[in-house]
Amino acid sequence: MEYPLLYYKNNLVGMLNLLEVMENHGCYHLVFSSSCTVYGEPNQLPITEEHSIGGNITNVYGKTKYFIEEMLADISHANEKWNIIALRYFNPVGAHPSGLIGEDPTKAFTNIMPFIAQVAIGHKPVLTIFGGDYNTVDGTGVRDYIHVMDLATGHVAALRKLRKQHQRLKAYNLGTGQGVSVLQLVKAFEKVTGTAIPYKIIERREGDITAMFANAELAHQDLGWKAQHTLEEMCTDFWRWQTMNPHGYRAQKEIKMTNGHGH
């Protein structure tokens, strides 16, 4: 919300360039990373793909994803060669179970699980929670957290579908169907890691909605995909990445460079 042009340039201009290059090379199969934010503030939960998109989107990021879905609808209508699946991600968290691949934020604004882990490992003093007065189980926002490895298998399932069937453009929700509040996520993280996460609740953040979780039945029916990983596994796998890489990728690069100078 603070840097709208950054998001519009990256997402919209980047997608325009990509689609032009794909068309020039006769490549018409695409799996697009969309988002549950295209639904805006939902009318009912859990949310299905039948829910309207674009009407009451609360943030810039969601608008860019919606505009791109509209772009994809137009090009697939104009040229029947296009075969596109838009995967509407819910809230990806976790890390590769090896602990070698994880999320290493490079900007001050970050997703919630890296923030929680940074507090747990002692790099940040306190977790900031935006809004404690939502109409939810404990006043904090509710989201559908999905393990990044389930997201990965969702992409493989989508690619298989594109190979088997030409359907121009179809959207699928990728989520677990479980709504989890911010405080519930914090408690789960504390439990599996044995750490304490001090937190403070401040005013709501512009662009956030109250609650969102998926009905992902269509992905199960059409793609043969279902989320397998639990909330505990999401926390455990992220904590493994965080403890194995306490300073993220930057420290690894520095170590490699230092070792290189020694030879």
From TrEMBL:
Keywords assigned: Carbohydrate metabolism, Galactose metabolism, Isomerase, NAD
EC number: 5.1.3.7
GO CC list: cytosol
GO BP terms, alphabetized: galactose catabolic process via UDP-galactose, Leloir pathway
GO molecular function, one term: UDP-glucose 4-epimerase activity
Domain of life: Eukaryota
Domain annotation NAD-dependent epimerase/dehydratase: ranges: 1-175
Cofactor(s) of this protein: NAD(+)
InterPro entries: Epimerase_deHydtase, NAD(P)-bd_dom_sf, UDP_G4E
UniProt name for this protein: UDP-N-acetylglucosamine 4-epimerase
Species name: Ignelater luminosus (Cucubano)
Record lineage: Eukaryota, Metazoa, Ecdysozoa, Arthropoda, Hexapoda
